[in-house]
UniProtKB/TrEMBL annotation:
Ranges occupied by WD repeats: 142-177, 184-216, 226-267, 268-309, 310-344
Alphabetic keyword roster: Repeat, WD repeat
Keyword Repeat attributed: yes
Organism placement in taxonomy: Eukaryota, Fungi, Fungi incertae sedis, Mucoromycota, Glomeromycotina
Keyword Repeat set for record: yes
Name recorded for this polypeptide: 9522_t:CDS:1
Pfam families, sorted: WD40 (PF00400)
Amino acid sequence: MNEMEPIPSLQQEFLNKLKREQSSDAPDRMSIPLPSYKGADVLSHVEMVKDLTLRAELDPSSTLPSICFYTFFNTYDSLNCLSISEDTTLIAGGFSDSYVKIYSLKREKLRGLRGLINPAEMKTVSDLENAKERVGSDCKKLLGHSGPVFGLSFSPDNKYIISCSEDRTARLWSIDSYTNLVCYRGHNSPVWDVDFSPLGLYFVTASHDRTARLWSCDHIYPLRIFAGHISDVDTVKFHPNSKYVITGSSDKSARMWDIQGGGCVRLFSGHTGGISCLSISDDGRLMASAGEDKSIMLWDLGTGKLLKKMVGHKSTVYSLDFSKESSILVSGSADGTVRIWDVKKSMSDNLNEDEHYSSKARMDIDENRSPVTKHKSITETKDLIKTLPTKQTPIYKIQFTRKNLCLAAGAYMPTEEELKGNNEQKNT
């Protein structure tokens, strides 16, 4: 008599039915240790679902995103970076004076409780509310770094923010108390950029020492060192599944790294200048890179192939982001413009360099020159949908919310005449 085969459990059946990645360099689904699930995570997921139900469906041909722009004045060229929280309630700036400033986007005062309120004096709820109102301020300044702050990133739950600096450290700050919790040391040179994982427990840094490093918030030493670039690693980004990290470098290349193994699994070459920003679509299939060569390149992460090159900006591109359905890409540049691009249109058309000059080529005509000497100042590929100029504000940060609203921010750069007028007013 044959013995009966054991009946598989529900968990085993579920794991057997999971889609398996076909790529040999794909990591195991269970390879990354995850933080324990908490009650607060349930609330955040509920809020996320609510936002998704209110999400505007964008279409390049009919429905373009609404853009809300925040301008910083009187920064005196000391603002280096900006970051906006996932729930769009806070915006943080990193300054050359070695501090971080956090502002509320809800027009409410920021209140840190630690060390400012004596619990013994709080008899009623109204006493606590009055005390909060007294200690509130329009912005909070975070002090701790000893050099300019170059990178910032909010945690997904908006309870923490990571900063990185020329002082070769990264620091974890609490948004509840506005205090420094941990200082992470390990890089040998200034740290240019930092990015929180979508999981919230891990973050990654990019440095002048040509490496990127993976950290866990509960460890003061790096878990992985990603080495391979031959120049500064200027920007870094987590893949949405948190199993890969993508870096952009001054060596004109981008690399995708496997977090578990620490090796490079994709190399993206094609830029003619350093890469200053990256963005990955929410579905994890596309990556956009841009930088000093003023162009934006769209890549297929599965194959590592270049899909198309998008041209239109007149200066270095500082920030990129995909819409939630990955049909639209927005970019912000030092030329003071926000540009909206059609991701799906003519993916093969723009790869031919000659077509850059057969698309919308703008001609500059100098009044003192004859029409024969007119020349092309800039070219725009066919996938550029719209250009939104500012008066005099380079765009440092651009980001889509969960509702598909686009937020952008930058620091106003006064003209020489305005600076001269301000100096004259000070002298009088």
